[in-house]
Amino acid sequence: MGTLIYSMITSVDGYVSDSEGNFGWGAPDEESHVFMNELMRSTGTYLVGRRMYETMVFWETAHLLPDAPPYIVDCARIWQAADKIVYSTTLEQVSSERTRIERSFDPELVRKLKAETELNLTVDGPVLAAQAIRAGLVDEYQLLLGPAIVGGGHRFFPDDIRVDLELLDQRHFANGVVYLRYGVKNPA
Questions:
Q1: Secondary structure element (H or E) that encloses residue 77, with its range
Q2: Around Cβ 71, how many Cβ atoms within 10 Å?
Q3: What is the mean pLDDT of the chain?
Q4: 188: pLDDT strictly greater than 80
Q5: Residue 174: is its pLDDT beyond 70?
Q6: How many Å apart are CA 126 and CA 154, to the nearest integer?
Q7: Which whole-number Å values give the CA distances from 60 to 63, 84, 96, 184, in the listed order?
Q8: So where are the chain's domains?
Q9: What CATH code would you report for 4-184?
Q10: What pLDDT score does 3 carry?
């Protein structure tokens, strides 16, 4: 059975982007990017909303950049090898391989996907993740805390939930990023 992971870079005060939608303050350096690539290797399916998809589709062609360092090429290859499900009511077509559109989030479909795979699934983006959290589908939370306080924007966690967690792993990086991995205590 697959594990559904919610993983994003977040500010110390819990935002994945600031009030203007910027997230450059959380851009990984080489060390943390290589680590993130290793985390991504076990992902078989990405569940993404339209906005996150439009950000992540960069990885479909990133390996073609003339000066792309090996860790960028590696990340692109990892993204390309996985399936992607984009949840959107407005997106008409996708511009990446191994990708399909779903018009609404169906918790039962996600449960079925988890049951049918040995690979991990990720839910990416705070709006879509909130739906998965409320449905009790998220098994693990991976936060990469960037050394910034942004004071507002898109929050990592929704306001109206309670989940008890246990720390499974942690790591500190030279650029000030801290990785925290939590499992859900007593899942439903």
A1: helix 70-81
A2: 18
A3: 95
A4: no
A5: yes
A6: 7
A7: 8, 11, 6, 32
A8: 4-184
A9: 3.40.430.10
A10: 97
Which conformational region is residue 33 in: left (phi greater than 0), alpha (psi within -120 to 50 degrees), or beta? alpha
Distance CA 98, CA 77 (A): 13
CA distance linking residue 40 with residue 113, whole number of Å: 18
pLDDT of residue 40: 96
Q: Which has the closest alpha carbon to 9: 30, 34, 36? A: 36
> Cα 91 to chain center, whole Å?
20
Relative to beta strand 140-146, strand 178-184 is antiparallel
3-state secondary structure of 63: helix
Q: Of 118, 157, 112, 156, which Cα lies nearest the Cα of 3?
A: 118
Burial class (CB in 10 A: 0-12, 13-18, 19+), 53: buried
Of 142, 174, 161, nearest in space to 4 by CA: 142
Packed helices 107-115 and 126-134: angle between N→C axes, nearest 10 degrees: 80
> Of 11, 35, 13, which Cα lies nearest the Cα of 23?
11
Beta strands 178-184 and 165-172 are antiparallel
Q: Which residues contact 180 (CB under 8 A, 6 or more apart)?
A: 141, 142, 143, 145, 167, 169, 170
Mean pLDDT across the stretch 60-87? 96
Give me the pLDDT at residue 25, please.
85
**Alpha-carbon distances, residue 128 vs 7, 28, 51, 69, 176 (angstroms):** 12, 23, 10, 31, 28
